[in-house]
Amino acid sequence: MDLAALGDLWFLPERMAITAYSARWLLPFALPICLYVCFTDLREMRITNQAVILLAAVFVVLGPIALPLPDYGWRLVQMVAVLIAGFTLNIGGALGAGDAKFAAAAAPYIAGGDIRYLVAIFAANLLAAFVTHRLAKYTPLRRIAPGWKSWDMGWKFPMGFSLGGTLAIYLLIGAFRGA
C-alpha cells in the first residue's frame, strides 16, 4: 500500500462542511479561549463563566462576517439546543455545569455536516486527554504543576481539557480542509 492510499483511510473527508474561510476567521479568536479553558479546568476543575461568555461573544460578533446570515441564525439555534441538552444532562449528574455551558458556547462554531467528524475528533481527543492526564497524575510529571486541583479529584476528570482541545482541533482542521 502506498502513502497516498494510506491517506484515504483517514476518517476525515477531503473537505469538511465548515468553510476554510469561516474557520480561519474564528480560529485566531477561539484558540486562546480553548487553551485557557484547558488550563483552568486542569488547574481548578472549573470552566470560568468569563471564558464561556467570551467564546459565545466571539461567535456572536464574528459569525456574521464568517458565515452567510442564514447559517449564522441556525448556528445560534444550535447554541440554544446544546445549552438545553447540556443543562438537562447536568441536572441528571452526567455533565458538569461548566462543561455544559462550554459545549453550548462552542456549538455554533460547528457546521452541522461535520457532526460525525466532530464526534470522532472528540472521542480521540478524550482518550488522549484522559491518558495524558492520568499519566502525568501518577508519575513525577505531576511535580511540574503541584497545586493543580485535578490531581486530587479521584476519578473525576477535567472535561474542559478535552472539550477545549476538541474545538481547537476542529477549527484547525477546518482551516486547512474546509469547504
From TrEMBL:
<feature type="transmembrane region" description="Helical">
    <location>
        <begin position="51"/>
        <end position="70"/>
    </location>
</feature>
<feature type="transmembrane region" description="Helical">
    <location>
        <begin position="20"/>
        <end position="39"/>
    </location>
</feature>
<dbReference type="InterPro" id="IPR000045">
    <property type="entry name" value="Prepilin_IV_endopep_pep"/>
</dbReference>
<dbReference type="Pfam" id="PF01478">
    <property type="entry name" value="Peptidase_A24"/>
</dbReference>
<feature type="transmembrane region" description="Helical">
    <location>
        <begin position="155"/>
        <end position="176"/>
    </location>
</feature>
<feature type="transmembrane region" description="Helical">
    <location>
        <begin position="76"/>
        <end position="97"/>
    </location>
</feature>
<dbReference type="GO" id="GO:0016020">
    <property type="term" value="C:membrane"/>
</dbReference>
<dbReference type="GO" id="GO:0004190">
    <property type="term" value="F:aspartic-type endopeptidase activity"/>
</dbReference>
<feature type="transmembrane region" description="Helical">
    <location>
        <begin position="117"/>
        <end position="135"/>
    </location>
</feature>
<feature type="domain" description="Prepilin type IV endopeptidase peptidase">
    <location>
        <begin position="31"/>
        <end position="130"/>
    </location>
</feature>
<keyword id="KW-1133">Transmembrane helix</keyword>
<keyword id="KW-0812">Transmembrane</keyword>
<keyword id="KW-0472">Membrane</keyword>
<protein>
    <recommendedName>
        <fullName>Prepilin type IV endopeptidase peptidase domain-containing protein</fullName>
    </recommendedName>
</protein>
